[in-house]
Amino acid sequence: MRGIVFLDRDGTLIEDTGYLRDPHAVRILPGAAEALRLLSREGFLLAVVSNQAGLAKGKFTVAEMEAVHRRFVSAFGAEGVAFDAVEYCPHHPEGAVEAYRRACGCRKPGTALAEGILRRLRAPLSCPRFVVGDKMSDIAMGIRLGAATVLVGTGYGNAEKASGEAAGIAPDAFLQGMSEAAGWIVAHGTGS
Q1: Which residues are known catalytic residues?
Q2: What is the per-residue pLDDT for 98?
Q3: Angle at which helices 112-120 and 136-145 cross, to 10°
Q4: Which of 19, 80, 107, 140 could be bridged to 89 by S-S, CB 3.0 to 4.6 A?
Q5: Which domains does the chain have, with CATH numbers?
């Protein structure tokens, strides 16, 4: 194992359509599957960490979220990509659904989901870590994890880059999409 890559879902691996509730609307972004196959071949573990506050906000049900999750995993599986972990945070402190209305450590930029994955996969402390996402919350999570971070220009990436700069948060790299991110990770395979 060369390291672990934590990946955002919406806007990074698949099209961001807002609160995704229809599994038939799952669309892999161009180059994403090929990029993940490269990372896997190069010995990196692949872990998806996604905020899904739509559950807390009542935008979709648990059954709808699980159907989208199954479609997401199967769509990438059909492209030869197997994830080592896929985790979602359903919480939001201002959620309409009481069961999910809370502040938590798993909602990015919190690190609880990523830390749980590291424990479950028994990744050594010295394991190089990378985070790829289209939002500054992904980058902030990566910084807290001691990971090398990549902000991609897909999804919200271009707009988020400016807001991150204004807030003094900067990724290690800002790249067009997953293809470029995978190449950068392979070239920088020792992590941060």
Answers
A1: 8, 10
A2: 95
A3: 50
A4: 107
A5: 3-187 (3.40.50.1000)
